[in-house]
Design brief:
Length: 79
């Protein structure tokens, strides 16, 4: 069954439902699905930043939590 055929069958079924509670539940389900389906796409700059971060990690260019906190307190790094 194609996507178009499936959509048409769903629409036919929905048109025959008169129970407001059920229709509200179906609507909420569709709303949730559309919210879940929204995927954040990284920009090219964001992808490069993530890639550089992984390279730094592989190269051992990292700080412990304690070291990072001390650097922030001293003002050497800002978040």
């Amino acid at each position: 069954m194609s996507t178009a055929e499936l959509k048409n069958q769903i629409i036919e079924k929905l048109n025959n439902i008169n129970d407001e509670t059920m229709l509200n539940d179906i609507y909420k389900l569709i709303q949730m699905e559309s919210e879940i389906a929204t995927v954040y796409q990284l920009s090219n700059d964001e992808k490069k930043a993530v890639e550089m971060t992984f390279h730094d990690i592989d190269a051992g260019k990292t700080y412990s939590s304690t070291e990072a906190n001390e650097l922030m307190k001293s003002g050497l790094i800002h978040i």
